[in-house]
């Protein structure tokens, strides 16, 4: 079976490969990247996360896909769609997510990739909306959500059950993509 792939003008969203581990571990070891996501991840944690994404893709036809630049085929992060986790307001809803290498911030890649994922979701799941959550203080991700025409739903903000209660990342905000329906 052919590898899953979506393309934008500058990016490729694709399935995960065994040789992605080193680069994705480096991304998840960067304190600047992890500042609004949580603790630095070990190599094993990243390997398990990639394996989980691969299994999720096989079972569901989507995941948080590996994200690379077309120009040099360099892995720069991830972007994609999964079903939201239990004990969150987006449980079982289409949840968009992204993570980007710090060196690539400010290039518009996240917005470009996320827009493509939203288009894919609209075509694949036409009766469902796309949702997103992030820590309350993740202003960069919140700005992307707003560029995607997502609306903050303060009544659905919550303390994330997988975050340390003492962490300044505990409080999460919930967004939903506004549609033209």
Automatic annotation (TrEMBL):
Domain N-acetyltransferase, residue spans: 10-151
Entries under SUPFAM superfamilies matching the protein: Acyl-CoA N-acyltransferases (Nat)
Name under which the protein is recorded: GNAT family N-acetyltransferase
Annotated organism of origin: Parasphingorhabdus cellanae
């Amino acid at each position: 079976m052919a590898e899953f792939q979506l393309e934008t003008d500058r990016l490729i969203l694709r399935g995960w490969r065994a040789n992605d581990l080193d680069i994705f571990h480096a991304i998840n070891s960067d304190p600047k990247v992890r500042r609004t996501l949580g603790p630095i991840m070990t190599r094993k944690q990243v390997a398990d996360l990639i394996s989980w994404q691969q299994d999720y893709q096989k079972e569901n036809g989507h995941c948080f896909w590996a994200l690379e630049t077309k120009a040099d085929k360099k892995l720069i992060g991830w972007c994609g769609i999964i079903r939201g986790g239990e004990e969150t307001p987006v449980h079982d809803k289409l949840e968009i997510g992204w993570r980007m290498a710090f060196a690539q911030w400010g290039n518009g890649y996240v917005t470009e990739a996320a827009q493509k994922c939203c288009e894919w979701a609209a075509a694949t799941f036409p009766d469902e909306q796309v949702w997103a959550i992030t820590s309350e203080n993740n202003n960069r991700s919140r700005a992307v959500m707003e560029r995607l025409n997502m609306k903050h739903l303060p009544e659905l903000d919550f303390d994330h059950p997988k975050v340390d209660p003492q962490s300044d990342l505990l409080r999460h905000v919930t967004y939903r993509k506004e549609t033209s329906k």
